[in-house]
Amino acid sequence: MRTKTLFKALLCGAILLASAGAQAERLKDLASIGGVRQNQLMGYGLVVGLDGSGDQTTQTPFTVQSVISMLQQLGVNLPPTGSLQLKNVAAVMVTTSLPAFSQPGQLLDVTVSSMGNAKSLRGGTLLMTPLKGADGQIYGMAQGNVLVGGVGAAANGSKAQVNHLSVGRISSGATVERAVPNALGENNMIALELNESDFSTASKVVEAVNRRFGPDTAAAQDGRVIRVRTPSGSDERVAFLGALESLSVTPAQTAAKVIMNARTGSVVMNQSVTLDTCAVSHGNLSVVINTENTPSQPAPLSGGQTVVTQNSQIEIKKEAGQVVLLKQAASLADVVKALNAIGATPQDLLAILQAMKASGSLRAELEII
């Protein structure tokens, strides 16, 4: 009973309907400028100074190899037969993102993650670690004290830890050593790349840019990329791009989509999704949707026009005889609510939605996650 109540709450509370009318958004929220992006950096290093919580060297031989290699570079030669028993060292991966237009000397935050079986990185110090990009070039150097956040508590001999001890951060722990070349504004042209490909939205963006900055300023290359002509001077170009990003554009309405989580029964719709006439039978459930066109004629000599209205009716019946009848627009939200009212399970809802989609009654894309 408790599980059924939970499913009912999920089914009823997870139906989200977006407004049918699209609102104006800033261009910087709809698109990005080609070439202006972050670059991921990664490096392999050692954290030292741990309080006995480092890697167990018998199970992580790469930690010992890294220590030997580091000591050799520092002029310390170890006996070839020597077996190091290290408890205060941990092998880690260091990751960060290099923002666009970063210059040498800029500081970045880094994330330090254990790749062995260290119990904790708390109190450790990251030794100088080169950070490389996808091209194998070094773009930064990381070093510093690792901060592991969280709360620890102990009571009646038991110990509880509310955090993740194998991952830490170093604030301003990396220094940029190399700048990434950027061809922004080359040939006085930039590329605006929409976050989602849409020909209607691309046309609206071109229209808004040309209306604001003059004809022939922007031209759509396809449904995603828009070529924009920029001023030649760098200072003028920056001011132009600032005004361009703040431009308000009303995006086109997206295609109707229904997303369902098969495990929890949650249903999310990006807009009001309607259904055509259909009848579905699943187990002890039956769903019938009828749509009738009712003409409404004006009074004689009134000069009005005949209007046809749609009267939709949803009937959901259970084998036990329980019937839910909705005399209103046949929308998917109404069907889901009515199925939830008579105790349909997520599996029932999934099968019914798939049947409606297969029959062509569901006028939306159905995605199951």
Give a structural overview:
The chain has seven helices and 21 strands. It has 369 residues and is α+β, with helices and mostly antiparallel strands. The strands form six sheets. A six-stranded antiparallel beta barrel has the order 3-4-5-10-7-6. Strands 2-11-13-12 form a four-stranded antiparallel β-sheet. The chain has a four-stranded antiparallel β-sheet with strand order 17-18-19-20, with helices on one face. β19 and β20 (323-326) form a beta hairpin. The longest helix has 15 residues, at 199-213. The radius of gyration is 31 Å and the shape is flat.
What fraction strand? 25-35%
Query: What letter string, H or E per element, gives the SSE order?
Result: HEHEEHEEEEEEEEHEEHEEEEEEEHHE
Computed over alpha carbons, the radius of gyration is 31 Å
How would you state the average pLDDT, rounded?
81
**Terminus-to-terminus distance:** 25 Å
Tell me the domain tally.
3
Q: Care to count the β-strands?
A: 21
Number of helices: 7
Helix content: 10-25%
Low-pLDDT ranges? 1-21, 306-310, 324-329
Spatial sequence of strands, sheet with the most strands: 3-4-5-10-7-6
Largest sheet data: 6 strands, antiparallel, barrel
Shape: flat
Structural class computed from helices and strand pairing: alpha+beta
Signal peptide: 1-24
Family: Belongs to the FlgI family.
Function: Assembles around the rod to form the L-ring and probably protects the motor/basal body from shearing forces during rotation.
Subunit structure: The basal body constitutes a major portion of the flagellar organelle and consists of four rings (L,P,S, and M) mounted on a central rod.
